[in-house]
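Onboarding guide, step 5: your first structure request.
Type a short instruction followed by the sequence, for example:

Predict the 3D structure of this protein.
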Amino acid sequence: MDGYLILAESYRTLVKQGKIDSATADKYIRVYEFLAACDKDDICILADSSSFNDIIRGYVSLALEEAETDEETKEKIKSQMKWIFDIHSAQDALGELEKE
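The system replies with C-alpha cells like these:
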C-alpha cells in the first residue's frame, strides 16, 4: 500500500476513534489520496506551479537560522531564492539532490 494511502487511512481511523473531527480529517484524506495518485512527474508539476515557493523559501530561511549562518551568506542565499524558481525546474532540483 502506498504511504500516502496509509496516512489517509490513519486519519479515517482517528475519526472513528473520536480523536479528530471529520472536517479536518477529510482535508488530509483528500490531499493524501490525491498524492497517492501522483507519480514523480506529477509532483514536479505541482512544485513548478509556484504554489509552494513561499513555503520553500520559508524552509530555506529556517535552515539558515538553524545553521547559524553569517548574515552575508544568508542574504546571498535569500537573494538567489527570489529567482531560482524561474530558471530551474523541480526536476533540476531533484537532480541536484541525486548528486549528493
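Each response can be followed by summary notes, for example: The chain has two domains: 3-37, 46-99.
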